[in-house]
Design goal:
CATH class of the largest domain: Alpha Beta
Shape: globular
CATH architecture of the largest domain: 3-Layer(aba) Sandwich
Structural class: alpha/beta
Radius of gyration: 21 Å
CATH superfamily of the largest domain: Periplasmic binding protein-like II
Helix content: 25-40%
Number of helices: 12
Distance between the termini: 12 Å
Number of strands: 19
C-alpha cells in the first residue's frame, strides 16, 4: 500500500496570543483552566514524493546533521518495514530534502528560509487552511502541533480550545473521549476520526496521610476534575479495590495547575490529573509521594474530532484526510525521537523540557484510531449517563460517532 509522505520543513509561528480559555481533553461545558497561549499559525512544508508504506507502519525520519543537509531516505516503520521516501528534518541552518515523485521534490532553507512550494499536493491543487482547536497546555497535543508546524502541506492554525469550537468555526478539535460523549448528547453530528494520543493516568497520594495501598484511599480527600477522563480513571481504579466514588471525598478542581499546591499544603490527600500536572504533584511531594497506576484499567483516548457537515464538504474532507497523513508521520517521528518534539511542546505549554521529559513515559502515540474505542465509549457513556440523569445510549448509536473512512483514505495514495 502506498501513500505520500510530507517533508518536515522549517516553519514559523505567526502569532501567539494570551488569556484565552482552555478546554482540557476533558474539560466540560464550563471550560478548563486559563491558558497562557492563544492561537498559533503554522505554515506547513511542501509535500514530497510518494513513500512506500506497508500495513501498519509510518516511516521514521532521516537524521539531520548540525548545519548540514538531511535526506529522508528509507526510514523503518513501526512494524519493521521500510518507507522509501521517508521524512526529512533539518537542523538550524541546514537544508531538508525528500526524494521526489508525484508530489515533486521540495527543499527548505535554514533558519529564516522560505518553503519552496508549500501547500500544494502532487496534482498542483492547494490544500485548504485548517482551524484546529485543542488544549495547548497538555502533552497529548504534541502530534497535532508537529503536524501543523512541519508536515501538513498547507496552513493549520492551532488554537486553545476543544470540541465546542467545532460549532463556531473550527474544522478539527481534540478532546478526551469523555468530552466527545458529553458533547454528542446534543450534537449527534460529531465525528471521531483519529486517536492522537493515549494517556496513562496516575493517582499521586501522600504517605503522610496514611496512604500506602490503593485501598487506603477510603475516606480520603482526592482532587480531580469531575466529569473528565481523570475522574473516570479514579472511578475505575477505586473499583479495583471494591470502592465506589462515595467511599472517598472528591475535591473538585477547575484548575489542574493548582492541584500540586493543594497536595503540598495538605488540603487534599491524593490527586489524579493529566500530565504534566500530576508529575508536578509527585515532584513537589518528593519522598512523601506514593503513586498508583494500572494501565490495564484505563487509558485516556485523546481523539481528533470534526462534524458530519465538514466531512460532506469535498475540499474540507480532502484537507482533513491530508492532516491525518500528517498526524501519522508526526506520531512516528515522536515515537522514534521523543525528545525532538519537547522544545515545541515546551514553547506551547509553558512547561520546561525537564518536566515534559519526566512525564513523557505516560503518553503513547500510535498514529491510528484506537481499535477498542467503541468499547470504551459504551462503558463510559453508562457512567456519564448515571451522573447526568439520562439513559445510556446503545452501542449502535455510539458507533455512529466513529468515522474510520478518513483514516482508510489517508492510508491510500491521495
Amino acid at each position: 500500500m502506498k501513500r505520500r509522505m510530507g517533508i518536515v520543513l522549517a516553519a514559523s509561528i505567526v502569532s501567539s496570543g494570551c488569556g484565552s480559555e482552555s478546554t482540557h481533553p476533558g474539560g466540560g461545558a464550563s471550560g478548563g483552566a486559563p491558558d497562557h497561549g492563544g492561537s498559533t499559525t503554522f505554515s506547513g512544508g511542501a509535500s514530497g514524493g510518494p513513500g512506500t508504506r506497508s500495513t501498519g507502519g509510518v516511516g521514521s525520519p532521516g537524521a539531520s546533521g548540525s548545519g548540514g543537509a538531511a535526506a529522508g531516505s528509507a526510514g523503518a516503520t513501526s512494524n519493521g518495514a521500510a518507507n522509501a521516501g521517508g521524512v526529512a528534518s533539518s537542523a538550524a541552518g541546514g537544508v531538508a530534502a525528500a526524494s521526489g515523485g508525484a508530489g515533486g521534490t521540495s527543499t527548505a532553507s535554514g533558519a529564516g528560509g522560505a518553503t519552496a512550494s508549500g501547500g500544494r499536493d502532487g496534482t498542483g491543487g492547494s490544500y485548504p487552511n485548517l482551524a484546529v482547536f485543542g488544549n495547548t497546555t497538555t502533552l497529548e497535543l504534541a502530534p497535532v502541533l508537529l503536524a501543523a508546524k512541519s508536515v501538513y502541506p498547507g496552513k493549520a492554525t492551532v488554537t486553545n480550545g476543544g470540541i465546542p469550537n467545532l460549532w463556531s468555526g473550527a474544522d478539527l478539535a481534540t478532546n478526551a473521549e469523555t468530552q466527545a460523549l458529553v458533547q454528542s448528547v446534543t450534537h449527534s453530528n460529531l465525528r471521531i476520526v483519529f486517536t492522537v494520543c493515549e494517556g496513562f493516568y496516575r493517582i499521586v497520594a501522600r504517605r503522610s496521610a496514611g496512604i500506602a495501598t490503593l485501598a487506603d484511599l477510603r475516606g480520603k480527600r482526592i482532587a480531580t476534575v469531575p466529569g473528565t477522563s481523570s475522574a473516570y480513571f479514579l472511578h475505575d481504579m477505586l473499583a479495583t479495590v471494591n470502592l465506589d466514588d462515595s467511599a472517598v471525598t472528591i475535591v473538585p478542581s477547575a484548575a489542574p495547575t493548582q492541584i500540586p499546591g493543594s497536595l503540598t499544603r495538605h488540603e487534599v490527600d491524593a490527586a489524579t490529573i493529566w500530565e504534566p500536572a500530576i508529575q508536578s504533584a509527585a515532584d513537589a511531594l518528593g519522598t512523601d509521594a506514593v503513586e498508583f497506576q494500572d494501565r490495564s484499567v484505563y487509558r485516556e483516548l485523546f481523539d481528533l474530532h470534526t462534524t458530519a457537515e465538514k466531512l460532506a464538504n469535498p475540499d474540507t474532507r480532502r484537507g482533513i484526510v491530508e492532516f491525518l497523513r500528517a498526524l501519522m508521520t508526526a506520531s512516528s517521528t515522536i515515537t522514534a525521537q521523543p525528545s525532538s518534539v519537547w522544545p515545541l511542546v515546551a514553547t506551547t505549554t509553558g512547561f520546561d523540557s525537564t518536566l515534559i521529559g519526566e512525564s513523557w513515559k505516560n503518553e503513547g502515540f500510535a498514529g491510528t484510531l484506537a481499535p477498542d474505542l467503541l468499547d470504551v465509549l459504551v462503558q463510559e457513556d453508562a457512567w456519564l449517563a448515571k451522573s447526568g440523569g439520562r439513559a445510556a445510549r446503545t452501542r449502535d448509536v455510539l458507533a455512529s460517532l466513529i468515522d474510520d473512512s478518513l483514516l482508510l483514505e489517508a492510508m491510500m495514495p491521495p
